[in-house]
Design a protein that fits this description.
Layout: H1 3-25, H2 40-49, H3 51-77, H4 86-108, H5 113-137, H6 149-158, H7 161-172, H8 187-211
Helix pairs in contact: 1-3, 1-4, 3-4, 3-5, 4-5, 5-7, 6-8, 7-8
Length: 212
């Protein structure tokens, strides 16, 4: 394995570790109810009280999971190590590591405007940093041979999904706190739609060359 390939593998391994730790820490903020009673109704009430924490856990788990899947796709098409990716990637990981706090703040204060705005802003920051990383990494000459141009462009466009959904959630947070998070559920659909747009645009640009 070349030195560049080793460096790329180290960067990927470190990134995977941060994603794994952050996604695991989410459950620590879901505190187990400890009641001095065998009463079933009391335990059911305690679990109902924890519903915002459960929902925050699921929402952030899926958001961090989506970020990791996109990160995995990106590094799967790169040809080798590029030092300029280090700090953009590190900044993205910093926000990922911060996600458990933002999630706990939102989950502990359901329907409060400031925690919802804070949470949506954190996701938006992660989405914009991911978008910047993708644009930087997918420049010509950095993608391994054999990857179709339309798939490279699909990756670029797919990175718009999280910033779009997070921006919508952020704008809606002051008006419908709590319900603004439903915009985040559109991330998978937006990713598919953006990827399709990216492929079509790349194929359209390739048509004149194919015609020649």
């Amino acid at each position: 394995m070349s030195h560049g390939a080793q460096q790329l593998e180290r960067l990927k391994a470190f990134s995977d570790a941060v994603f794994a730790i952050a996604i695991t820490l989410l459950v620590i903020e879901v505190h187990v109810p400890r009641l001095d009673t065998p009463d079933d109704a009391a335990y059911l009430a305690a679990l109902v009280h924890l519903m915002p924490s459960f929902m925050g856990f699921v929402l952030s788990f899926l958001a961090i999971g989506a970020l990791w899947i996109a990160h995995h796709r990106l590094f799967g098409v790169l040809d080798g190590y590029e030092p300029r990716l280090m700090w953009p990637n590190m900044l993205l990981l910093m926000v990922i590591a911060f996600m458990p706090f933002a999630t706990a703040l939102m989950s502990s204060n359901p329907l409060a405007r400031v925690p919802e705005v804070f949470y949506s802003a954190t996701l938006l920051a992660a989405g914009l940093l991911q978008l910047f990383l993708f644009q930087l990494a997918l420049r010509p000459g950095r993608v391994r041979a054999g990857v179709p141009p339309q798939e490279v462009n699909a990756l670029r466009w797919r990175a718009l999904a999280l910033p779009t959904a997070a921006a919508a959630a952020l704008l809606a947070a002051p008006h419908i706190p709590g319900n603004n998070n439903f915009f985040l559920l559109a991330i998978p659909l937006l990713a598919r739609a953006y990827a399709a747009i990216g492929r079509r645009r790349a194929l359209r640009r390739m048509e004149p060359a194919l015609a020649d």
